[in-house]
Amino acid sequence: MEFPGFEPADFDVFSIPDFAGRMAEIRSRIRPKLVALGADLAPILSEVVGCELFPHTAQHMRRRVNPPEETWAAFCRDKKGYKRWTHYRVAISGAGVRVTVFVEDDADDKPQLGARLESDAAALLQQLGGTAPVRWYTLGNDPVLQSELTPERLQEAGRALQRLKTLKFQAGIPLPAAEVPGYSPERFEEWVKEQAEVLKPLYLAGTGTWRE
Fold it and tell me: Could you tell me if residue 122 is inside a domain?
């Protein structure tokens, strides 16, 4: 299957209230698109970060009651799985699509990412650029834009990641649902690449390969 792009009905899936109904639509409608998107983007994102990345698509196998509020394609350096490692996510929800750098609460990369954020917050923010529309979802329920974030607050986040076992890391760039259908498949994939390039310093910080 070639990635056909997302359409308005894809975002409506996440308003289905019951678990079985939403999961059925995710598996039949959304997941095949994410699989195709993953196959297309893996070599593109590998070029962005300078090492081979492998695509994975969320399966939500552990869920039994509460339907997922979003689902995603993930890209990381391990062919077997992504949850132990820093990874890019291209996630779709009722609100739209977002490209994020994501580190799970029990990931092997989490301590080194926290240490890097604590020690090099100012340099990382400088590399991201003051006008980048990065939202720091880890910092609270009302994500701040990168231009509003101080090195001190990012250092605090780094310390918290090292201290709190249940804290995940997620920072990224959203695209509202109303805008996504206006993107052709090719333009959407180019948009993802552009956001991955913006977020590259965070990805490399998580993998331990970032340099000032």
Answer: yes
- Position of tokens 């690449």? 193
How many domains in the chain?
1
| CA atoms of 183 and 22, how far apart (whole Å) | 25
Task: Kindly tell me if the per-residue pLDDT of 61 is higher than 80.
Answer: no
**Domain encompassing residue 19:** 8-207
The CATH number of whichever domain residue 111 belongs to comes to: 3.30.930.20
pLDDT exceeds cutoff 70 at 84: yes
What's the whole-number mean pLDDT along residues 203-209? 94
Establish how many alpha carbons lie within 13 A of residue 66's alpha carbon, considering only the half-sphere containing its beta carbon: 3
**The token pair that represents 150 in the structure block:** 């101080």
Contact 37, 45 (CB under 8 A): no
Q: How far is CA 160 from the centre of its chain?
A: 20
CB-based contact 211:120 (threshold 8 Å): no
Give the C-alpha distances (Å, rounded to integers) separating 21 from 17, 28, 64, 133, 177: 8, 11, 12, 34, 21
Which structure tokens are listed for 140?
A: 């609270």
- How far apart CA 25 and CA 82 sit, in angstroms, is 24
Backbone angles phi, psi at 3, to 5 degrees: -65, 120
Q: What pLDDT is recorded for position 63?
A: 74
- Which pLDDT tens digit goes with each residue over 85-103? 999 999 999 999 999 999 9
Segment 1-20, tens digit of pLDDT = 799 999 999 999 999 999 99
